[in-house]
TrEMBL record:
Mitochondrion is among the record's keywords: yes
Alphabetical GO biological process terms: cardiolipin acyl-chain remodeling; inner mitochondrial membrane organization
Family, similarity comment: Belongs to the taffazin family.
Chief place where the protein resides: mitochondrion
Catalytic reaction(s) noted: 1'-[1,2-diacyl-sn-glycero-3-phospho],3'-[1-acyl-sn-glycero-3-phospho]-glycerol + a 1,2-diacyl-sn-glycero-3-phosphocholine = a cardiolipin + a 1-acyl-sn-glycero-3-phosphocholine
Keywords from the named record: Acyltransferase, Lipid metabolism, Membrane, Mitochondrion, Mitochondrion inner membrane, Mitochondrion outer membrane, Transferase
One term under GO cellular component: mitochondrial inner membrane
Gene Ontology terms for molecular function: 1-acylglycerophosphocholine O-acyltransferase activity
Protein's name according to its UniProt entry: Tafazzin family protein
UniProt domain Phospholipid/glycerol acyltransferase: residue ranges: 65-244
Amino acid sequence: MASHAPAPQSPSLPWRMSSAMVMGMTGVISRSLLYGLNSVETTGLSRFLDILNSRHDPETRQRGLLTVSNHVSVVDDPLIWGVLPLNHSFNPSNLRWTLGAHDICFSNKFFANFFTYGQVLPCHRLKHSAHGGLFQPSLAQAIRLLSSQPFSPASSSSSPPLEHHDIPDPFTVGAVTYTTNGSDSIPAPSVYTRNRNSWVHVFPEGLVHQHQARDLRYFKWGVARLILEAEPAPDVLPMFIDGTQNLMPEDRGFPRFLPRFGKRIRVAFGEVLDYEATFGDLRRRWEGLVRRSNEAAAAAAAAAATATARNDGKSNGSLFAGLWAKQDTTPASAATTSPATIQQRIMMLGELPDDLKYSKEAQEIRIEVARRMREAVLKVRKSLGDYPDADPTLGSADIWKAEDQVPAKKYKSRVDGSEINQN
């Protein structure tokens, strides 16, 4: 079998320089605004910096880093990363990737270039775009960025080991661009080996949620895909943000485009979660579901191959029919599949067949992962000691369904009275 071409290590030098400049200057401006015009309180920052320092060399990283937080202002990203010392700002390979609204961050060529250099992946919101949802291409990119390679030997998966040629590796055969809507062309960062085991940050509330008590909405299930499908399982670190909602309150008057400085900003970093204790049982359920899906696909492929062979034998007359009958006694899957499946051969990491997208068990697993992740962020909130107990009902997606019908992108929630911005 022909070997794959070596994976490119990193983008071109002009690209790297542009990214370093965008990320670096954004970090400088964010830090200047944060500390120069506001009061800043951080919790757990030194511990988080130790984590980043341990990941300084991309070649020695063992797994990806996923940070997850609440979302209280349109300036949360990039402003909160102003808490990082400036010596981190000009090293994009050790800074976060995140998801940004396609209709804003990628609305024109200038914005698209700026946010691409700024390590932002375009995300469509299902409420406003038919291209949105849980299985859009940028989410697959984020999964690959968190990963080392598909089904890495370091994976805890109990599935049979796979030969390297059985799965298209996005780092060796992936295209250098991808499309999110069939017409755009977005650089694919996961194709570069230097981006393996990257840091990805997400706001799984999926919108700006300015609640009076800084309580949280339910977490959308994309965060569950990142936690379950990255290979190997990533380090997961919860965060909590407060105060940026006072910089840019959604009910602010004129001039709306100007932040209201002089506020108290809090950025709290939790500890890396014990993955096994927090998500281990759910990952094993997910892996079992994947294995059963693979086995069913392999059995279907074997049956199809047998049927094809039998039909071909009949069409070639009785002499060949007898030969095919003898061949039918051998396992067709041995000739047509590896210990894995047809799907694994044709799907890259981050791509799923329909049964793994929409089955009841798959959905139940994602819901529970997202719930536990939300609880971890609320635990960081509680550790700060200044907030009332969280309302457990706000963690259910069902109570928010009515707001899916609200046509406005900015509105006051009918559920909890919070200010919402879905721009």
